Amino acid sequence: MADTRRRLVDGAIETIRQHGITGTSARTIAATAGVNQALVFYHFGSVHELLEAACLAATEERVRPFLRRLDDITSLRELLDLGRTLHTEEREAGNVRVMAQMLAAAQADPRLARATSAALHLWIEPIEQVLARLLSSSPIADLVDVAGLARAVCAGFVGLELFEGIDPVGASAALDALDRLAVLVEVVDELGPVARRALRGKLRRTR
Fold first, then answer.
1. Chain-centroid distance, C-alpha 150
2. Domain of 99: which CATH number?
């Protein structure tokens, strides 16, 4: 990415991080990037197009190292531990705030909705793949909608950023509850073959 475009993309993300979406404009982005305001329109055509490009570019950069860490995950607990670590890193960097701001703005803006959805899918798709791998041999595999679960996980971690602002203890308890669910899945996976067949049959009957 050319230097000026890169500065504008970085400036857009930093402006959202510092001022929220309502405080983000061509003027504030240009000031943060240290460039002339006219360059926003020269390189991107509009603030909307810059925000779309910035949302995708910033997410791609954050997802890239995350993908390498996912390759080493062997259990749901490890996945949740990685999720906790990532959430802490993203929160401290202000990145979850950026995504939350984009999601809020996207509610009334179809163009931002498309860009934000595309950015979220950069997180959702690798999580869906690792969940499918981890649950493939589990007795609950037939019961779990992996695609839906991946989206629930991503939605939950974004939502925790907002929840932590008013109830940090509750947010921590929510993560602990997910840990206990992961332990329960591990216990189920360790059942003997007879118990596994019985459980699988019971789950199928209750679907």
1. 10
2. 1.10.357.10
Residue whose entry in the numeric block shows the structure tokens 């997802």? 63
What pTM does this model have? 0.74
| Angle between helix 110-135 and helix 146-166 axes, rounded to 10 deg | 120
With a cut of 80, say whether residue 58 has pLDDT above it. Answer: yes
Question: Is 21 part of a structural domain of the chain?
Answer: no
Taking the C-alpha atoms of residue 204 and residue 184, their distance in angstroms, rounded to an integer, is 18
pLDDT tens-digit readout, 29-52: 999 999 999 999 999 999 989 999
Element (H, E) at 39: helix 38-44
Two tokens at 103? 């999601």
The reply to whether 8 falls in a domain is no
Residue 147 falls inside a structural domain = yes
Which domain does 195 fall in, by range?
Answer: 55-206
Q: How far is Cα 195 from Cα 183, in angstroms, rounded to an integer?
A: 17
Residue 25 lies in a domain: no
